[in-house]
Amino acid sequence: MAAARRGGPAAAPGASVRVLLLAFFVFMLRGGPSRAEDDTVAAARPLSGGQTLVSKRGKFRLGFFQPDNSSQHWYLGIWYNQISLHTTVWVANRETPISDPESSQLSISSDGNMVILERGGGRSSSSSTLWSTNVTGIASPNSTVGVILDNGNLVLADASNTSAVLWQSFDHFGDTWLPGGKLGRNKRTGEVTRLVAWKGYGDPTPSMFSLELDPRGSSQYLLNWNGSEQYWSSGNWTGHEFTAVPEMTSAGASPLSKYSFGYVDGDNESYFVYNVTDESVVTRFQVDVTGQIKFLTWVAAAGEWVLFWSEPKKQCDVYAVCGPFGVCAENALPSCSCPRGFRQRQLRAWLQGDHTAGCARNAALQPCSAQKNGKDDDDRFYTMPNVRLPSDARSAAAATARDCELACLGNCSCTAYSYGGGGGGCSLWYGDLVNLQDTSSSGAGGSSISIRLAASEFSSDGNAKKLVIGLVVAGFAAAVTAVALATFLILTRSRRIKSLRRVEGSLMAFTYRDLQSVTKNFSEKLGGGAFGSVFKGSLSDPDATLVAVKKLEGVRQGEKQFRAEVSTIGTVQHVNLIRLLGFCSEGSTRRLLVYEHMPNASLDRHLFGAVGGGGVLLSWDTRYQIALGVARGLDYLHEKCRDCIIHCDIKPENILLDGAFVPKVADFGLAKLMGRDFSRVLTTMRGTVGYLAPEWIAGTAVTTKADVFSYGMMLFEIVSGRRNVGQRADGTVDFFPSTAAALLFDGDVRSAVDSLLGGKADAAEVERACKVACWCVQDDEGLRPSMGMVVQVLEGLVDVNVPPIPRSLKVLGDPTKYVEFFSGLPSA
Questions:
Q1: What EC number is given for this enzyme (predicted)?
Q2: What is the pLDDT of residue 621?
Q3: In the 8-state DSSP scheme, what is residue 577?
Q4: CA distances from residue 533 to 308, 602, 647 in whole angstroms, order as listed
């Protein structure tokens, strides 16, 4: 970083730099148009097997796909072509899957319609039509073609003039509503375009949940169950918003305010349409498997869909979301369960997220003719407290709870009763229980309901005297056994704890059952990453200490080695490193780590989600202190631990913030636990290529300077408040580190600061941070500073010169140089 270094000769671009730039080039431009591929199907050019059609600008792809690898069902569908996660937006044959795409094809039939044909099995050469556009009056098969458009619309059009559309998928939505599509009703034909959810995440079959324009003629949109039960309404259109969706125009604070919406009520049709002005934005509305309408936007830097808006807000407000006899619970995973005496009616569908089949009894109730009024084998009742009562109750006259019970028991069609509640009285339910909700976890209180079960679900009374004698004898024996067992366990536990403390120092050793209890059976997920998922928990100490429990995935060490590694990590203590409190190790699959809980979550939430994403807009002072704190934590890992620890995955998602926004480097021990090679592969595959140093991609030896490079890339994001890689309106790449470097040389670094701060930033600190970031991302690791030096510079103890702009930043910041650069590279 000294002036002498700056004036030294530039390092020749070696193989590692070439590979880095090539990787970055592919990574950042993978959202650009794909190679020219056919977008048309015709009578002479059918589509079959693994063949696909791609829209002209490469945005959407059409072909056969398999949503669930465990089944043999295939479908013809449309999905995004330029995002990393396969996301289907339309399916043709939702109710008629095919078993073999090689023997099926999309073609133009003899009547000019677009059809899916499946060839018969065995030696049969005949084909059956599984799906058709069903347009009448087409002249001949050679007069029409099928075309996939760049807005995701599949059209059947005149072959000589494809703008003359005869049929389009936008008139036959699936579960997804894309920009430009009209969601409404044709007043002349009565035809309605509606969104219908998939039954399960691996099953496109239409479910009970749908969204459509009010068939009674108002301008509101309704979420319905089974086409009849309305459970949410948008409210009527006011001219600029729906009355129940104020987010559409709430002072620009909502993501919905960034899109243009319009409602049209004409003579021939009424419909609602929305559009996005920025073509780089990928967005969609979807009626989810859960029955909720969701607005999602693709965030390429995170490699996932981000939810910005949904209705109903509460999952349990969706009608019959858990099916007959299913119990819904808010803030629980899964949200649906079966009460005592019941099991999932369709387990496979249940595991795919489709709970609408509900729960079935473990044991059948007594037939009406067999009821004996109080005998041993009569049906009985199980009482559930703290519930929101289900739908369709009937009132009955009853002076007491016992009278209410007898009223239900006396009618073999009665399945449950409730007495008292808010208004008192007796309520009875006949047939299936629907919309039953457990409110105990939400703290909302509720009523109690008594559900009718077969007598076999309860222990038999038997002979009272024999029962009393048996209980006395059993109780005495149990007491003696318990005393002996308790003594043994206390002694054993004492020896075990002492042994653990000798191995793990001050760490607490938990059992898997302990952590199930601490996390309420892992019900509240905080997040997840390359190494596993994290859940919120609370220890049963006097202070009810909050913790974060991480379930590790892919740990390869044996029990003894794992404990030794955890013990090493547990001794690492620094104010800017997340503190490890304990662990669990039971077999090769139950490996968990218990950390202190960070109330302000991760840095990325506040940098990239300050507006509409639930984060807090960080001031410049806070950002600078976060950058300094992270540098101190990494310096400790690299230079001050007994063993040098390379983090291997520095990025905003791995920087956690406590209640005062003090940064804590997280996951710093996982690279050590998992193995460096494993970490590198996961990091590459999980979408954080933008933070990887050249040596990672080249496969050469990795030193602490790999963390320095990642830190530099993250520091650019702290300054700008945006992801380093973006896309301009004209489709070209916007690579912020190159912009920051240019501004640094032009003496205008204040322009690099997050615009949301309104210019409120210390100019000297901004310049210092940009210089440090540029030094950290040098192609040659020998030019990168140590993290100790970074700390001194940020603290103002050491001055720093303007660094040379790395060649990779020059190239990636100017797409016009790509061809020149790559053609000039010598072969590896």
A1: 2.7.11.1
A2: 94
A3: B
A4: 22, 14, 18
Q: If you write DSSP's letter for every residue of 359-397 in order, what string do you get?
A: EEESSPPPPGGG--SS-TTS-EEEEEEEEE--S--EEE-
pLDDT at position 299: 83
Phi, psi of 617 (to 5 degrees): -70, 115
Give the pLDDT of residue 505: 42
Which has more pLDDT, 551 or 571? 551
Could you tell me the two tokens for 644? 């040098």
Average pLDDT over residues 143-164: 93
**461 or 299, which is more confident?**
299
Which pLDDT value is given to residue 21?
41
Q: Give dist(CA 564, CA 507) in Å, integer.
A: 12
Amino acid at 407: A
* β-bridge pairing 655-657 and 663-665: antiparallel
Nearest CA to 589 out of 560, 554, 550 is that of 554
672 annotated as ligand-binding:
no
Q: Which amino acid makes up residue 192?
A: V
Which of 209-213, 268-272, 725-729 has the least mean pLDDT? 725-729
Q: Which of 123-127, 247-251, 281-285, 609-613 has the highest mean pLDDT?
A: 281-285
The burial of 464, by beta-carbon neighbours within 10 Å (0-12 exposed, 13-18 middle, 19 or more buried), is given as: exposed
Across 501-510, 729-738, 742-751, least confident range = 501-510
The pLDDT tens digits for 495-515 are 333 333 333 345 788 888 889
**Secondary structure (3-state) at 99:** coil
8 Å CB contact between 164 and 124: no
| Tokens at 283, concatenated | 């967005």
> Residues 6 or more apart from 802 whose CB is under 8 A from it?
6, 744, 745, 771, 774
Q: Tell whether the torsion through CA atoms of 435, 438, 441 and 443 is positive or negative.
A: positive
Angle between helices 620-635 and 787-794 (to 10 degrees): 150
CB 562 within 8 A of CB 591: yes
Convert the pLDDT of each residue in 355-372 to its tens digit.
Answer: 889 999 999 898 876 555
What is the three-class DSSP state of 249? helix
3-state secondary structure of 255: helix
pLDDT digits (tens, 9 = 90+) for 397-429: 898 999 999 999 888 899 999 998 545 689 999
> Can you list the positions of beta strands (E) in 392-446?
394-396, 414-419, 426-430, 436-438
Q: What percent of the chain has pLDDT over 70?
A: 76
Please pick, among 604, 649, 707, 780, the residue that the annotation labels catalytic. 649
CA–CA gap between residue 145 and residue 158 (Å, rounded): 6
Is the confidence at residue 377, as pLDDT, over 70?
A: no
Cα-Cα-Cα-Cα torsion 575, 581, 587, 590, nearest 10 degrees, comes to: -80
Where b means 16+ CB within 10 Å and e means fewer, 698-727 reads: beeebebbbbbbbbbbbbbbbbbbbbbbeb
Domains and their CATH numbers in the chain: 33-172 (2.90.10.10), 327-457 (no CATH), 508-596 (3.30.200.20), 605-821 (1.10.510.10)
Q: How far is 334 from 97, CA to CA, in rounded Å? A: 28
Identity of residue 593: L
Residues 804-814 as b/e (b if ≥16 CB within 10 A, e otherwise) read bbbbbbebbbb
C-alpha to C-alpha distance for 95 and 198, rounded to whole angstroms: 11
Is 648 in contact with 706 (CB distance < 8 Å)?
A: yes
Q: Are 822 and 794 in contact (CB under 8 A)?
A: no
- Residue 42 parent element (H or E): none
pTM passes above 0.70: no
Q: How far does CA 721 lie from the centroid of its chain?
A: 23
Whether 562 and 673 have beta carbons less than 8 Å apart is answered as yes
- Contact between residue 320 and residue 434 where contact means Cβ atoms under 8 Å apart: yes
